[in-house]
Design brief:
With about 220 residues, this protein is α+β, with helices and mostly antiparallel strands. Helices cover about 30% and strands about 25% of the residues. The radius of gyration is 21 Å and the shape is globular. It binds heme C.
């Protein structure tokens, strides 16, 4: 009984801590800005973004479609304060920065079967919502890219690429600028409020998909 009380008390204080830090982040959305510009509105190449919130990966291997524009994988990250704001309010705050890393295709075989696996990184791109700085851009979003393919390195800054990039985003992204339809993490978080959707125990796809379960159990049995 004593042990249970202690454990319960531990859980309560821990979740209160979480709530405190979450609302602190959401109540001060303007405080920390992750997008850094120089005097000419060039965006300094974002740093440390692999420690931000991971939105997801899209996979568009050239082997599947020779006409694909951005081969072969895109890993996408959003700054944590803007993610907290999105979770609280269901909209993108001013200053939101989303970074996309592009990767070549790597192996096509693994111990679980054939597929597409990630290879070398070759480009860092970003989009930033800043309506004051970019009043002519749709909802204030502008776009940036850093690869210098001739020198095989990343540049330190990028000029705003504007309509060169925005055309698809403005026309085919479901929420008007960000490809919301490709990021379940972003869909689940939209306006969720306090707490985190990944802590819920509903995983309908997995529970319903007995075939998937049977395949895994079969595989594990064969290993014995
Ligand atoms: C031909 C259409 C098209 C053009 C042009 C385009 N994009 Fe995108 N972009 C997409 C699609 C589709 C996705 C989501 C799936 C993916 O990553 O391929 C995306 C995703 C992104 C993302 C991740 C966040 C999001 O909105 O989903 C960033 C950042 C991004 N693009 C930046 C750029 C930059 C910088 C340029 C210009 C160099 C650019 N895009 C040009 C179609 C385009």
């Amino acid at each position: 009984m004593l042990a249970i009380t202690l454990v319960t008390a531990g859980i309560v204080s821990c979740s209160e801590e979480n709530k405190k830090s979450e609302s602190a982040a959401a109540n001060t959305p303007q405080e920390k800005q992750y997008a850094v510009f120089d005097a000419n509105d060039n965006l300094i190449r974002p740093k440390d973004y692999r420690s931000w919130i991971f939105m997801g990966t899209s996979s568009t291997p050239k082997s599947e479609d020779p006409n694909v524009i951005f081969p072969d994988f895109q890993n996408v990250y959003i700054d944590p304060v803007s993610f907290a704001y999105w979770k609280k309010h269901g909209e993108w705050r001013e200053g939101t920065i989303i970074v996309k890393e592009l990767l070549r295709a790597g192996d096509t075989n693994s111990s679980v079967g054939r597929g597409h696996f990630q290879g070398a990184h070759f480009e860092v791109a970003a989009q930033v919502k800043d309506s004051k700085r970019f009043p002519k851009m749709h909802n204030g979003w502008n776009y940036f890219g850093y690869a210098d393919f001739k020198k095989n390195k990343l540049n330190e800054t990028s000029m705003p690429l504007g309509v060169k990039c925005s055309s698809c985003h403005n026309t085919t992204a479901v929420d008007g600028d960000v490809f919301y339809q490709f990021y379940p993490v972003i869909q689940a978080a939209k306006g969720y409020g306090d707490g985190n959707p990944e802590n819920e125990n509903t995983r309908l796809g997995l529970v319903a998909d007995y075939k998937y379960k049977a395949d895994v159990i079969d595989f594990v049995k064969k290993q014995k």
